[in-house]
Design goal:
By secondary structure, the chain is an alpha/beta fold. 38% of the residues lie in helices and 24% in strands. The chain has a six-stranded mixed beta sheet, with helices on both faces. A four-stranded antiparallel beta sheet has the order 2-1-4-5, with helices on one face. Helix 6 links the parallel strand 7 and strand 8. Helix 3 crosses helix 4 and helix 3 packs parallel to helix 5. The N and C termini lie far apart (45 Å). The C terminus is likely disordered.
Length: 258
């Protein structure tokens, strides 16, 4: 039985106003995969993510999420579709004046008619999943960086999404905290059956969690390789890709690309 695609992008040209940042982007993500979008700083990874979740319209091309064409102009359909999608941002993007539990509860309050007791129960469950069961009454400013990221993850999964996006999940974390977050991402996939798309340039995370990756070259402004990261590291014909995915060649890769 063929595994369905949960995300497809066809012939995307992306940018802001008349400036094109990425061109002719084509990719597909299978249900249950952890898929990485890779590239060095300034290559357009975050631009691609923002377009894939509908924050900006593409200059041309189409995006499909969970079998539906992404159309933010159709507000009702877009809002309904995005309740099936979870998004975590680099800093957690939590509201500083709200407790952790209140932050996690917010999507349930906005998009469901569940009772206060039901919401509180779900929030406790999600906080427990991310090892924050005892921190619901804390404010975000009272948490460490890694804890804020986990709180952001709890909020992203509170509606039981089918598709989960991570924007640089390990950014700013020490190695132990980053490894713990990688393990948590794998746990989310196993326990919830969620498909994960992660934007990152962290090699440890790439090899620890991703099934397939797409590598963006900022000079060519497009995806130059796609596949298993170990296979690309060892056998890709593209020299930039091999150097980017090879720890010993990482510094040389950055030097070559400025």
């Amino acid at each position: 039985m063929t595994t369905p695609d949960v995300l497809t992008a066809q012939h995307l040209f992306l940018g802001y106003d008349d400036r094109t940042v990425l061109r002719d982007i084509n990719l597909s993500v299978k249900q249950g995969e952890i898929f990485g979008i890779l590239g060095n700083s300034g290559c357009g990874k975050s631009t691609l993510l923002k377009h894939l979740i509908g924050l900006f319209p593409p200059q041309s091309g189409t995006i499909s999420l969970l079998g539906e064409t992404l159309d933010p102009a159709d507000a009702a359909s877009y809002t309904k579709l995005m309740t099936k999608v979870g998004i975590t941002y680099q800093g957690g993007a939590l509201f500083g004046s709200m407790t952790v539990a209140e932050n996690v509860a917010l999507p349930l309050e906005l998009h469901t008619d569940k009772s206060r007791e039901e919401i509180a129960s779900i929030v406790r469950e999600k906080l427990s999943l991310v090892d924050l069961a005892d921190f619901g009454d804390y404010l975000p400013g009272e948490l460490s960086g890694g804890m804020r990221k986990r709180a952001g993850l709890a909020r992203a999964i509170v509606l039981d999404p089918q598709l989960l996006f991570f924007d640089e999940p390990s950014a700013g974390l020490d190695p132990l905290a980053a490894a713990g977050l990688d393990k948590l991402i794998l746990t989310m996939r196993e326990l919830l059956g969620v498909t994960v798309i992660v934007v990152t340039h962290e090699l440890d995370s790439i090899f620890a969690i991703t099934d397939r990756v797409a590598v963006i070259d900022k000079n060519q402004k497009t995806i130059v390789a796609e596949g298993n990261p170990r296979d690309l590291r060892d056998h890709c014909d593209n020299l930039f890709v091999r150097r980017f995915l090879n720890r010993d060649g990482l510094k040389r890769s950055f030097q070559i690309d400025g």
